[in-house]
Amino acid sequence: MNEKYSLNVDGRTHTVTADPDTPLLYVLRDDLGLNNPHFGCGLAQCGACTVHFNGQPIQSCVTPVSTVGEAKVTTLAGLGTPEKPHPLQTAYIEEEVPQCGYCINGWLMTAAAFLRDNKKPTDAQIRSALQGVKCRCGTHVAILRAVKRAATMMG
Ligand code: FES
Ligand code: FES
After folding, report:
1. Sheet holding 50-53, edge to edge
2. pLDDT value at position 155?
3. Among 4, 14, 28, 50, which one is most buried in terms of CB atoms within 10 A?
4. Does residue 99 have its Cβ closer than 6 Å to ligand 2?
5. Mean pLDDT within 52-70
């Protein structure tokens, strides 16, 4: 049976009506029109659906809307804007990372949380932090360059 939920997403409060088991990803995309989190695997295996949950990256495809409660959810739209981009967004453009672009949301959201807590990461630390995110276009080397560039910008 559907329930009403009040969600804090990108600093705004939204009220939605949904079945408790509905993945947060579906609510973000279908009810709130926030299309940066993507459906990839639906099984917490690819990272395409990553959002921040109180600042920590989670896979929204396996997060029931009923478990969100008062948590602050941040999507890529809340990370930066075209006028004031997050350093990772700037670095992705400067390093010309994207191919098809489907995976970008997962890399950026995962890397943003990592760089916030790791100011001078090694290559091995970056690889370890991002190991759960997949790119079928093979942009991994460019992604590593971009994350390192962003780390320098943020340091
Ligand atoms: S769609 Fe959520 S991890 Fe793949
Ligand atoms: S750029 Fe196409 S899946 Fe990563």
Report:
1. 12-18, 3-9, 72-74, 50-53, 56-59
2. 84
3. 50
4. yes
5. 98
39 lines ligand 2 (CB under 6 A): no
Q: What number is the average pLDDT over the span 141-151?
A: 97
pLDDT reported for residue 39: 98
First-to-last alpha carbon distance for the chain, in angstroms, is 49
- Cα–Cα distance for residue pair 3/51, rounded to 1 Å: 22
Type of residue found at 11? G
105 pLDDT band, cuts 50/70/90, is very high
Residue 95 in this model has a pLDDT that exceeds 90: yes
**How many CA atoms within 13 Å lie on the side-chain side of 83?**
0
For the entire predicted model, the pTM comes to 0.96
Structure tokens at 80: 């930066």
- Ligand 2 pocket, 101 CB below 6 A? yes
Out of 27, 28, 59, 105, mutate this one to test ligand 1's pocket (max ligand atoms within 8 Å of CB): namely: 59
Whether the CB of 28 sits within 6 Å of ligand 1: no
Asked if 75 and 7 count as a contact pair (C-beta separation under 8 A), the reply is no
